[in-house]
Amino acid sequence: MVYRSNSSLALPAIAGSVADRTASTPSQLEIEITDLYDHLRSPLLRYVIMIGLTPADGEEVIQEVFLALFRHLRNGKPRDNLRGWLFRVAHNLALKQRQRSRTNRVMEPQDGAEDLQIAHGPDPEQAMAARQRRQGLLAVVRALPEKERYCLHLRAEGLRYREIAEVLGISLGAVSLSLTRALARLTRADGAL
User: Fold this and answer.
1) Other CB atoms within 10 Å distance of the CB of residue 154
2) Please, what is the Cα angle at 167 between 108 and 90, to 5 degrees?
3) 26-101: which CATH topology?
């Protein structure tokens, strides 16, 4: 007969024990990670989908990102600029996932969803013009060089230039130049539409 010691089996038998109460109470670390997840899940998911992942692959990457964050914080690593750190890890994992799944297409909104939003508009001509403008601008964004597209999306998610530089591993000047070029292209395209 093999004897295995497992003290956790005895703990639940003690009704109302301290171990029971602390096991069900989330730690400060868990609360912090949950708050970050609640605030940054959607922006991170949008970003990894923009990189070219499917929503399902994006959700997996986001789970990996927050698991990495848990390990990072549990090991006492730096807590400064966790938002930038999360985007950097998401960026790297998304590129690896995209390479694994060998998909390079950018996911677009469902055409039916756009039609539903436009169908409730007061003026069909204005709705059609707005739809054409949006499609034209999306085409320009998709045609941007990869670095400019990444910079633009990260800026749209509210990251500062320094954070974008850290996420993409480029200089502050390269971020500024990429954003200037991307915005100039969008402005020109918008004027032509």
Assistant:
1) 25
2) 55
3) Rna Polymerase Sigma Factor; Chain: A (1.10.1740)
Cβ contacts of 21 within 8 Å, gap of 6 or more:
none
Give 6-49 pLDDT, tens digit per residue: 433 333 343 444 444 445 677 888 999 999 999 999 999 999 99
Q: What does the pLDDT read at residue 146?
A: 93
pLDDT at residue 169, as a whole number: 95
d(C-alpha 97, C-alpha 75), whole Å: 25
Domain at 111-192, CATH from 1.10.230.10, 1.20.272.10, 1.10.10.10, 3.30.1330.10: 1.10.10.10
Q: Where in the chain is the domain with CATH 1.10.10.10?
A: 111-192
Specify the pTM.
0.62
The per-residue pLDDT for range 57-112, each reduced to its tens digit, is 999 999 999 999 999 999 999 888 899 999 999 999 999 998 888 544 444 444 44
